[in-house]
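Sample 1 of the test manifest.
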Amino acid sequence: MRAVHFCNSCGKVQPPVPVDYFAFFGFPRKLNLDTAALEKEFYALSRRLHPDLFAQANPEERAFSLEQSSMLNDAYRTLKDPIKRTEYLLRLEGVELEEQSKQATEKARATGELKKQVVPPDLLEEVFELNMHLEELRMQKKMGEDDPALLEEIGKAKLSLEEKYDALFNELRTEWNNWDKFVDNGTEADRRKILDRMLDVLNRRNYVRNLVRDVNEALED
Amino acid sequence: MATDTIVGIDLGTTNSLVAYMQGDSPVVIPGEDGLNLVPSVVALDEKNQIVVGNAARKYLIETPERAVYSVKRLMGRGVEDIQEELKLFPFQLADDLQSGEVIRIKLGEKTFTPPEVSAFILRQLKRNAERFFGAAVTQAVITVPAYFNDAQRQATKDAGRIAGLNVLRLVNEPTAASLAYGLDKKKHGIVVVYDLGGGTFDISILKLHDGIFEVIATNGDTHLGGDDIDNLLIAIALDDIRGEFGLGFENEVRRSGEAVARIRQAVIEAKIALSSQPAAKLDVDLPGGKRYQREISLEVFEQMIQPIIDRTVGPCKQALKDANLKPEQIDEVVLVGGSTRIPKVRRLVQDLFQRVPHTDLNPDEVVALGAAVQANILGGGSDITKEMLLLDVTPLSLGIEVAGGVTDKIILRNSTVPASATQYYTTQVDGQTNVAIHVLQGERELARDCRSLARFDLKGIPPMPAGMPRVEVKFLIDANGILRVSAREQRSGKEAEIDVQPTYGLTDEQVENMLLESFDYAEEDFRQRQVIEARREADTILTALAKAKKNPAWQELTSEERSKVETLENALVTVKDGDDYHAIRGGIDALNEATMRLAELMMDMAVSTALKGKAMNDTDLEEGPKAGHPVAKAEFK
């Protein structure tokens, strides 16, 4: 399936039809995506849809080109990034994303509100310890003290978190494979289960990312 | 005759240029003085006529209150944004300026907005091009700093309109430079463009791939450039003067526009000399027969400017980070802008990117040349440009203000443009028919730290219980980097009306009025334009006549009629290349009248031919308007 961007008989640009980003490129709704093929297709479509090619065209064609190429760019930007692609698919499948995102955190910080964060159970102990260390570090910095042992401790924790972060991406890939297998022939219940698991991985991953960022900030301050 | 040539314009802080594509290569069009660079200086002469460029420079010293430079720094900005500028530049604002109003600058007794002043410069460039082509120039591509925000871009577009130009595209300066640079070579790889000009700094990282110039990341500072170096040197000179002659005298110098202008000219000359010499001398005549003299060594100069050029490092690092690249992954570095002639700047770039930068293109001209290339592409392209396509990005994130004064980013910086985002709004009170949206640009978390672009008032929402309406608002950044907003209430399908209050911009009506007013200052322009248009009309009628003479109808005329037509034809040929508008106009009208019967005969013949079953195409009549192309519905396969 693929959206038709041009008239079949004369090749002129057409108004965009409301399709999802996968269909826009003529790709199946699968998460393992050949990014080289995506880029090639992006360049090929850019060469036909970009407003620069319609500077001398009539206003209607110019408007179509503007809409089509903005959709092309939006779609490409979303699909080429593995995380954005996953989040997009979840939303497409009707899953409400828990705003564990960077933006939500920033918002909470800026307004001084406390953000509700669910600590993944397997991280509880580690996070508790890390937060204590970070608190200690801030205190020491205020006093102008320096404790190499504490820094080493925090450095180790950071390394462990970064490993977890990478491991979570691999976990996500496993779910991608499951999704791609079941998207065409699995049951609705199968697919729901995979979507829920992907959401869970993403939330944990965002949580770890925020932690790493907190550590980096504490070290830099 | 190169009619309808689209020109490329570099509207710079210090200098402006106009270029076009001559065959396979872009060329700068010189002014009447034979020089390529038109200084971006505008002055009002004794007769209250606008003077632009080299001719205006003398007024900077003679009557500084009637001249202005570096106006680009004020484009798209409000009074509260330019307090720093006012300390450093001799801008004189209008006395009756209201808060929230677009800035107006005083030139003598008159006041002009920054887009109007820029329009005077554009008009001069347009005139130079028209003189060069001998034909009207109405379409242009204009370059802007990549890091310009929406308001600054809009102001530049307004300036184009006020100058009587249809601005087909705003192109980012570093991207334009890459077009000029990549024209003759089929290049692949990652290219960095470091552009330090008179007033702005941009860094852009591009991926070149089979003629596609894809910008991956851009960053910059729209208030950093050679001007800052000049101002620093002026401040040091004034310090010296206080040390030598006392505070009272320093204040006297400061108050004298002429003395400051002289110092400014001297430090600019010294700065330029220091790009090729180990030392430079300052020697300035001051009021009261006093004199300021100093020698600056290259070493001291480089120490002084270090803090200024160091300000380019942060944006470079951020752009690399955004592009997810390490310096060793960069294939080439290109330098653009006059300030990159400073050896210290070149060393800094070399250290940052671990590459010897390219300097083979003239850094003052490369942006205009690139604009000409883009103009050629927009005009349909030629053999050399037909594979070229520019994919640029928006330099700043677009956001909307949400509860708590927080910015919700909806289009992130470095997104390829055109780019769009859709948001949904509803009402909070029963029967509410308006929703206000505050649009911002910038990277900060709080709305008050971002740049306010505009307040949109969605009107005409059908009255419904609170929370029921669902207004879909589409934010679209076009290929110029300018925001467009449209809205629709989904339940009723009604297009919502949008009232835009640009925070720092001109309304359409204001721009139109300025376009009309601008003719008052350029009577010469208006006359020239009339001549050019009449000349084109004369060419059209002469061509048509030459064609008609081959038509059998020509032989149907009496010999007297034929000789009268030919006499008038020769007369028009003679006057059309002159500058007398009335003579050309008269010649056209006379020839038109004399050929009336010829036209009728041709028409009759064409009709009878058609009745005989011959196709219209076999006659010499022009084809009728082509039938509009039916737009087929898009479909799915």
